[in-house]
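Table S2 (continued). Query chain:
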Amino acid sequence: MAREFDRTGWQVFPHDSVLADWVRHALPAAREAVKRSEDPRGLRCGGTWFVGVNALPNDGRGAIGNGSPLAGKVVDFIADLFPGRTFDLDRGQVSVCYPGYPLPSDQESAAAFRFRRDRDAAHLDGLLPEGPDRRRHLREHHAYLLGIPLTESDPGAAPLVVWEGSHQRVHAVFSQFFKNIAPEDWGSYDVTEIYHAVRRQVFEECRRVVIPARPGEAYLVHRLAIHGVAPWADNARSGPDGRVIVYFRPEFPDPADWLSDL
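Corresponding output:
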């Protein structure tokens, strides 16, 4: 399975009773996070997306309150990918999509909305847009992206999208760009042009894969993979909570590991 992940940059894990127990404990906390959010910026895309960054009150092991740490087959797989290493989990993102996602809003330009609708808002985590011109800089050095669905929803309810093999292209381009630059200085460089160029290459050469999942399942995405969220299909349904997924993106202590061997 690890070799397949290295090739594709993504992996789905089937229903796991251990993870399902964690989900049952996490869902009330996620609901509370959505309920208590008073920040109007929390809802985007015309009210169809609750961003929920760092909204889940978990500790570094993934435990919520007196609950158990995050565990299961996907956690074991991650441990095998990074032998001898442990990561403190970030507070999980509680990403909630609702029917109609995405709708236009005054929070993004018409061009940005079209890219979200037509290209799934495809992006690489850790490259943050800065300044009035939204120039991209590498600010976060994630080890992986772990998605854990908390609610039942149809496959067309704004599922994750990954461009298979895109991590290999991204690795090649950024390794060349940063070849003679110290890792601690990477963030000072504007990478907007090379990022857009490699993303265009990915659109042309890599297979777009839609990855729906249900509670008790999970998916892992390579840190360098281009990914996004598909629009909510017209006939797709979910429960009253919407499509709720928790994402974890722990970071490497050493930024050099972001471009370590695939």
